[in-house]
Design a protein that fits this description.
One of its GO terms (molecular function) is glutathione transferase activity. 57% of the residues lie in helices and 7% in strands. It is built from 9 helices and 4 strands, in the order E-H-E-H-E-E-H-H-H-H-H-H-H. The longest helix is centred in the middle third of the chain and has 30 residues. The relative contact order is 0.16.
C-alpha cells in the first residue's frame, strides 16, 4: 500500500504549486520536503533522483517523478481529472498549456531585474486580459456549464482558479470585465476541497518574497 505522495521542492510556489493545487483538488494529502541548501540539491542528483537534474520531484506510487507536466498528467489521470475521452483530454491539454504560459510569467516575475519589473508587470496584465482570460470567458459562456470541459471538474479548472487568484494578487480588479470568470471563481472557491486549500493553514504557499528568490538562486546556481 502506497503512502502519501512526497513533494520535494523549495518552500514556495514555483513549479510545485500547480501540483499542490491538483492533489488538493483530488482530496489527496501529501508530505513535503523543502530544499534550502545546494548540498541537498546535489545529493538528489548524485542519488539519481533527478532524471534531468531539475526540480520539482514527486515520489508517488513507487516512482520518482520529474517534469511538471508529466507529474500533473499522472495525477490528473489517476484521480479522474483528465476528461472521459481523447477529445476532452485534448481540450484540457490546450487550456492547461495556455494557462501555464500565463502562470510561467507570474512565476518568473520575482526573478526579474528591478529595471524590468514594471514592464513585466504590465505585460502580465495585458496578456491576462487580452489573450488568456477572454478564451475562458468565451468557453464558459458558450457551453453554459460550470466547468471548462465536459461539465465536470478537471485539471484545467484547477489550473485556471490558481491562475485567476495569482493574477488578482497583483491586479485585484482584473476580473471586472469577465462575469463568467467571476462566477467560476466563486463556484470553485466554494468547492469543499478547494475551500480547504484556500485556508491559511493549508499547504498552499504565499506569494514569493525576497527570501524565497534568494533560496532558489542559492540552491540552483550558488
Amino acid at each position: 500500500m502506497s503512502g502519501k505522495p512526497k513533494l520535494i521542492y523549495f518552500n514556495g510556489r514555483g513549479r510545485m504549486e500547480p501540483i499542490r493545487w491538483l492533489l488538493a483538488a483530488a482530496g489527496v494529502e501529501f508530505e513535503e520536503t523543502f530544499l534550502d541548501t545546494r548540498e541537498q540539491y546535489l545529493k538528489l542528483i548524485k542519488d539519481g533522483s533527478l532524471m534531468f537534474h531539475q526540480l520539482p520531484l514527486v515520489e508517488i506510487d513507487g516512482m520518482k517523478m520529474v517534469q511538471t507536466r508529466a507529474i500533473l498528467s499522472y495525477i490528473a489521470g489517476k484521480y479522474n481529472l483528465y476528461g472521459k475521452d481523447l477529445k476532452e483530454r485534448a481540450f484540457i491539454d490546450m487550456y492547461v498549456e495556455g494557462i501555464t504560459d500565463l502562470t510561467n510569467m507570474i512565476m518568473m516575475f520575482p526573478f526579474s531585474p528591478p529595471e524590468a519589473k514594471e514592464k513585466n508587470l504590465a505585460l502580465i496584465m495585458e496578456r491576462a486580459t487580452h489573450r488568456y482570460f477572454p478564451v475562458f470567458e468565451k468557453a464558459l459562456k458558450q457551453h453554459g456549464q460550470d466547468f471548462l470541459v465536459g461539465n465536470k471538474l478537471s485539471w484545467a479548472d484547477v489550473q485556471l482558479i490558481e491562475a485567476i487568484l495569482a493574477v488578482e494578487e497583483k491586479f485585484p480588479a482584473v476580473l471586472s470585465g469577465f462575469p463568467q470568470l467571476q462566477a467560476f471563481k466563486t463556484r470553485m472557491s466554494n468547492m469543499p476541497v478547494i475551500k480547504k486549500f484556500l485556508q491559511p493553514s493549508s499547504p498552499r504557499k504565499p506569494p514569493p518574497d525576497d527570501h524565497y528568490v534568494a533560496t532558489v538562486l542559492k540552491v540552483l546556481t550558488e
